[in-house]
Amino acid sequence: MQNPNDQIEQQLFTLLRRTQAIHVQTSSGEVELERSAYGILCLIADEGPHRLGAIAAAFRLDPSTITRQVQAVVRLGLAAKTVDASDRRASLLSLTDEGRVAIGEARAHRRRMLDAILADWTLDERTAFMTALTRFNRTIDDWDAHDAVPD
């Protein structure tokens, strides 16, 4: 019997490709959001203003990569940097009104697409899928990425 983890890895890669396709198909509204911009804006919309270092850590990316991506959303007027009152050397990234509208429209469009994709699924099936995805994401968050992965 094949190791289920082999199939999970394959399905995760398929999911990654499918979510990229959903991203492309759900670009709507006046502002077309790049995938990185969408992620940053969702993080801030869900959790509130963040320091750039915290955004980099959330995505497990180098701060220089996040800095370029943040500059793009600031340039578009979707987010603004302000001085962090708790440490005036640092800045916080928060949504602008335009950013709130853009992320709201993008999410609504994606959720309508998910409604259509999952229309044939029962409520129990959708709930079980959401529960499994939530647990998987929580497990990844709890996992120490610095632990060595066995060969």
From TrEMBL:
A Gene Ontology molecular-function term? DNA-binding transcription factor activity
For biological process, the GO terms are: response to stress
Superkingdom to which the source organism belongs? Bacteria
Where is the HTH marR-type domain positioned along the sequence? 9-138
Q: Which InterPro entries match?
A: HTH_MarR-typ, MarR/SlyA-like, WH-like_DNA-bd_sf, WH_DNA-bd_sf
- Cross-referenced PANTHER family: MARR-FAMILY TRANSCRIPTIONAL REGULATOR (PTHR33164:SF57), TRANSCRIPTIONAL REGULATOR, MARR FAMILY (PTHR33164)
- What's the name of the protein? MarR family transcriptional regulator
